[in-house]
Design brief:
CATH architecture: Orthogonal Bundle
Largest sheet: 2 strands, antiparallel
CATH class: Mainly Alpha
Radius of gyration: 21 Å
CATH topology: ABC transporter involved in vitamin B12 uptake, BtuC
Distance between the termini: 27 Å
Strand order of the largest sheet: 1-2
Strand content: under 5%
Mean pLDDT: 88
Number of strands: 2
Structural class: mainly alpha
Helix content: over 70%
């Protein structure tokens, strides 16, 4: 493999390499505590909100580098309303869930309307939303904490001590269901890769070298199996991971395999050209922010379930973690570029940094400094790469 190919491989997999190196650094610095089964499980449970919100934030960023600053406040407001309904008003949890989803979608549609059809800048619209819904959260909760007691809701949305997929084989000390799930995931991934390569070859498309595909597939499968093994040694698959997996698979398919997904990229790449080609650009903006409201509502439910309560302070800085994960994962600050898989890598990187520094006992303020530097570095890399290509 010559130097040009090596550099091309590194550039295409920069964030994966960075994730591996940073993970190895924290494993070394924590004396291996970083990869203890319980910590691996916590990495998912504590950062599930980042994966979900970042997936939705990607659609906003694709439309032209736009962001949604209100998601943290919407998470808090939806959670506050849901907890109040279930605990103070004795509303059935199913009805409360439906109501929370409706609220989230309505908020997203309301902001999407101003952005898409009135052309109020997304930054201003969502900044206003951040203030409005943070204030309304305090109004709903009256500055107090509302504790959750509905065990069904808590378990379903990833909270409590028993929020894990049960082991159907009942092996003592090892969750065989989790390990088999990891193996099946690897088989499915390999089948998809092979089918995709065959289709591209038949259609005469340019494909990557076989060695590069094999190396990447081997690394990804090794990570999945190692991850599954560690979870198997703890309590198995967290419920939050199931929710994250469903969201990632659905949005990964939408962005890569559907006409609607291609429209998001087209609007971000060149809005005028997209409009001239018949794409309803206003509709794309509207859908991006409506969808963001929906996912914020889902995260609101996951948050109050995990913490078994609702407080006026929940959701703070959630929007920053989501935005940071997108840009670190390869989404362009100019829009039109980015993948769900990249966003997941970015979210994992943020989660690894958070967990690693917490285990090391690094001060919370220094943690923010490090995350800020990582985010700045990722955006600088994107900007410099764009200039070189031009």
């Amino acid at each position: 493999m010559n130097k040009a190919k090596v550099m091309s491989f590194i550039k295409a997999n920069t964030m994966i390499i960075a994730l591996i190196l940073i993970s190895a650094f924290f494993v070394w610095q924590t004396g291996g505590r970083m990869i203890l089964p319980q910590n691996v499980s916590n990495l998912i449970s504590q950062n599930a909100y980042v994966f979900v919100l970042a997936t939705g934030m990607l659609l906003c960023i694709l439309t032209g580098g736009n962001i949604d600053l209100s998601v943290g406040s919407v998470v808090c407001f939806v959670g506050a309303v849901g907890a109040t309904l279930m605990e103070n008003k004795d509303v059935n949890w199913v009805i409360a869930v439906i109501f929370m989803l409706i609220i989230g979608i309505a908020i997203g549609a309301w902001q999407g309307f101003w952005i898409a059809y009135v052309r109020v800048p997304p930054f201003i619209t969502t900044l206003a939303g951040m203030l409005i819904f943070r204030g309304l959260s305090n109004v709903v909760l009256q500055g107090l904490t509302v504790s959750l007691t509905n065990t069904t809701f808590i378990r379903l949305f990833g909270g409590g001590a028993d929020c894990y997929v049960p082991d159907f084989f009942g092996v003592e000390g090892f969750n065989l269901t989790t390990m088999l799930t990891g193996i099946i995931a690897c088989v499915i991934y390999l089948v998809i890769q092979i089918q995709s390569r065959i289709k591209k070859t038949k259609k005469g498309y340019e494909i990557e070298s076989l060695n590069r595909m094999l190396i990447r597939s081997a690394v990804i499968c090794a990570v999945i199996l190692a991850f599954s093994y560690q979870l198997s040694r703890h309590k198995g698959i967290p419920t939050a991971l199931v929710i994250v997996a469903i969201v990632v698979l659905i949005y990964g398919y939408i962005t890569s395999k559907t006409v609607l997904g291609r429209h998001f990229y087209a609007v971000g790449g060149n809005e005028k050209a997209a409009k001239l080609s018949g794409i309803n650009t206003n509709r794309i903006y509207f859908l991006a922010y409506t969808n963001m409201g929906f996912l914020a509502a889902l995260v609101g439910m996951m948050t109050i379930a995990r913490l078994t309560s609702a407080q006026p302070t929940y959701g703070q800085n959630y929007e920053m973690d989501a935005i940071g994960s997108c840009f670190i994962g390869g989404a362009s600050a100019y829009g039109g570029t980015g993948k769900v898989s990249g966003v997941i890598i970015g979210a994992l990187l943020m989660g690894v940094i958070n967990l690693g520094m917490s285990i090391m006992g690094v001060d919370a303020n220094w943690q923010k400094v490090v995350k800020g530097m990582v985010l700045l570095g990722a955006v600088i890399f994107d900007v410099v790469s764009k200039k070189r290509n031009n």
